[in-house]
Structures are given as C-alpha cells and as structure tokens.
C-alpha cells in the first residue's frame, strides 16, 4: 500500500497494517457490525509436501494439527516446554522435530506457515506479532483476530476432501455439518474417487478440451454418482469401463 493511500485512512480507524491484535480485533468487530457478514475468506488447499511448518504447543490441539500436517507431507517443527504422552507414537517420524522449550522469535525464521496452539495468551500474542513482522501466515487456535487463515472441518474419503467452514463464526457448527456429510459418504467412496481419477488420466483420445470435458461429465453424471453414494457403484463402473475403452 502506498504512502498516499495510507494517508487517506481516517484517524479514528486503526492503521490497516497495525501489528496490534487488539486493534485488528476491534476492526473486524466493527466491519462485522456495520456490514452484517464478516469479510469473506478465500478457500484454498496448500501443497505442503516437504515445506517447513512451525507448530507452537504441546497439548491435544497441537497434536491434532501436527498429525494433519504430517499427513500432508509437511516438515514440522514443534516447540513447547512440555508434551502430552500422546506425542510418543510420533517420535520415529523423521519429518517431525520436537524442541522442548518456550517459543523464540527465531523459531519462525524458515517457516512457510505457522500454527499457534498454546493455552498462554501472552505467548499467543508474541507468536502473532512475530509472524506478522516476518510475513509468515499464522493460524492462532481459537483466536480469529490474530489468524491469517483458519482451518476448516474436513470430511475425507481418500483423495476426496470436502471442507466446511463458517469463516470462524461457529466452528462447532462446521464440525457438525462435516459429520453429517461424512455420514452420507459410503466408506468405500475413496475407491470410486480413485477409479474416476485413474480413468480420467488414462484416456488420451484426441479432441479439444471442451469436448473431452463434456464426454467425461456424461460419465460422472448425477444418476451414476447418486447410485455410488447410495452404495451401488455398478452404474458408475460401467460408465468408467466404457470411457477407458475409448
């Protein structure tokens, strides 16, 4: 943002690049009150394979975040003065480095992104200030005002991931909706997703992109998918076999 643009900000409002979390919290509250909905968040899936991620915290929430990051292939450095016994199964994972001490600003030096999951408000504040100064995207657990991104509730079936978010307004509602979606997905739906992906990649018939997309849309049409979701994959498998034989 240019100096001239910043000079037009009214004195009564917080500076748009303020590092003070209290001001950020007040700004978000003011926006939500004045315009009804909160600012819309941009949904995105990161490729974290072999990327360095910092997690600060040694409790249950930190453990859950670390498990998810490792599942995504990240290289995780976890910093905490103490650890839950639940961390023991992760000791042999070469992608996880545990540092037993309190957070230091230098912990963020090489981080691609960070998660603050401590129960100490002052430590959370320090992490947020340091991450913002170093332009490291941060998720501060249960603290929307200090977070640059939030983590949605995820319904998973193999490569299929359905993200549910309320933009931080009602995380438990997002979790309930995730549970509802998961209950609708057959346990073996991951196999259907894998078969669809394999068929799409295997078919190399010539033709323009739009025509091929239209043909493939006919393979994964609503009736076939509805049958698969109901536990009957036969119609979908028939269409996939015909597509692969082209």
Topology:
Blueprint lengths: L2 H5 L13 H15 L16 E5 L3 H12 L3 E6 L15 E5 L12 E4 L4 H13 L4 E3 L12 E5 L2 E5 L6 H14 L4 H14 L6 H11 L2 H8 L4 H11 L2
Parallel strand pairs: 1-2, 1-4, 2-3, 4-5
Antiparallel strand pairs: 6-7
Beta strand count:
7
* Poorly predicted regions: 1-19, 29-35
Number of helices: 9
Straight-line distance between termini: 54 Å
CATH superfamily of the largest domain: NAD(P)-binding Rossmann-like Domain
The whole-angstrom Rg is 23 Å
What is the chain-wise order of helices and strands?
A: HHEHEEEHEEEHHHHH
Which percent range fits the helix content?
Answer: 40-55%
On the 0 to 100 scale, the average pLDDT is 83
CATH architecture of the largest domain, by name, is 3-Layer(aba) Sandwich
Q: Estimate nothing, just give the exact number of structural domains.
A: 3
The CATH C-level name of the largest domain is Alpha Beta
Q: What spatial form do the alpha-carbon principal axes imply?
A: elongated
- Strand pairing plus helix content: what structural class? alpha/beta
Q: For the largest beta sheet, what order do the strands appear in spatially?
A: 3-2-1-4-5
Please give the largest β-sheet: 5 strands, parallel
The percent range for strand residues is 5-15%
CATH overall fold name of the largest domain: Rossmann fold
């Amino acid at each position: 943002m240019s100096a001239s643009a910043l000079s037009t900000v009214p004195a009564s409002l917080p500076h748009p690049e303020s590092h003070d979390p209290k001001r950020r919290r007040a700004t978000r509250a003011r926006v939500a009150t004045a315009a009804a909905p909160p600012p819309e968040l941009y949904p995105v899936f990161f490729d974290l394979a072999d990327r360095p991620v910092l997690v600060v915290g040694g409790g249950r929430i930190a453990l859950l975040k670390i498990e998810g990051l490792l599942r995504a292939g990240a290289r995780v450095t976890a910093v905490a003065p103490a650890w839950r016994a639940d961390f023991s199964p992760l000791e042999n994972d070469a992608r996880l480095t545990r540092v037993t001490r309190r957070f230091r600003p230098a912990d963020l030096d090489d981080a691609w992104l960070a998660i603050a999951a401590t129960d100490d408000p002052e430590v959370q504040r320090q992490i947020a200030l340091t991450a913002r100064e170093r332009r490291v995207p941060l998720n501060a657990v249960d603290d929307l005002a200090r977070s640059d991104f939030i983590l949605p509730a995820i319904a998973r079936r193999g490569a299929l991931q359905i993200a549910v978010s309320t933009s931080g307004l009602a995380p438990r509602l997002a979790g309930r909706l995730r549970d509802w979606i998961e209950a609708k997905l057959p346990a073996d739906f991951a196999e259907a997703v894998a078969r669809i992906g394999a068929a799409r990649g295997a078919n190399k018939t010539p033709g323009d992109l739009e025509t091929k997309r239209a043909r493939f849309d006919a393979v994964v049409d609503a009736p076939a998918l509805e049958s698969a979701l109901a536990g009957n994959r036969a119609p979908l498998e028939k269409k996939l076999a015909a597509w692969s034989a082209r």
